[in-house]
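FORM 7B: Structural annotation worksheet

SECTION A. Query
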Amino acid sequence: MTDVIKKTMENLEKNGMKPFFVETKEKVVPLIETLVEEGSSVSNGGSVSLKETGVIDLLKSGKYEFIDRTGLEGEELRQSYIRTFGCDNFFCSSNAITENGELYNVDGNSNRVACIVYGPRQVIMVVGVNKIVPDISAAIKRVKECAAPPNTVRLNKKTPCAVTGHCISLDRESSYICDGCSGDDRICCNFVISAHQRHKDRIKVIIVNENLGY
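SECTION B. Predicted structure
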């Protein structure tokens, strides 16, 4: 474990979040199985990291009551979001984690950040070491350069960053956290920083010593 990872985990703990560390992505599912009771309700936000680590397959395995929104539209989709908001275990990743133990997440639809902030009894994040940054300023830049552009491509969104590979705000002399494009396909709509947590250990962060997701 590097000094940066150790510092990040110590600060997550100070901020009321429970950190875990595993060396490889193959270690993620066995750890989660110790944290989640069989038969409990589970759901997830969109996440490449969850797919890469096998977590999505675990959620669909039949061991849990999986709230799956795949293929749903309209009112059915809305109801699945409402059920997810009250589930026992919500799984996602984080766009960035600072060495100060803060989580930084940017969403378009924002069902993910809503569940991170409040709702599910337990939030379990699976995060690769590539998402650890020094501070919030670096986290903001990371989303504009490394997270949002490939996600717009993955989601087939027609945004400037899908073409250029970076947010248009970075081409300006000065920009701020919310600066960006203004089209209907924009995925950077709500910006959430999770700092000190009142509900101690509700958010659990599994840091994987590999690069995962965007």
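SECTION C. Observations
Helices lie at 3-14, 28-35, 48-52, 55-59, 74-85, 111-117, 136-154, 160-164. The CA atoms of residues 41 and 65 lie 4 Å apart.

SECTION D. Sign-off
Analyst initials: ____
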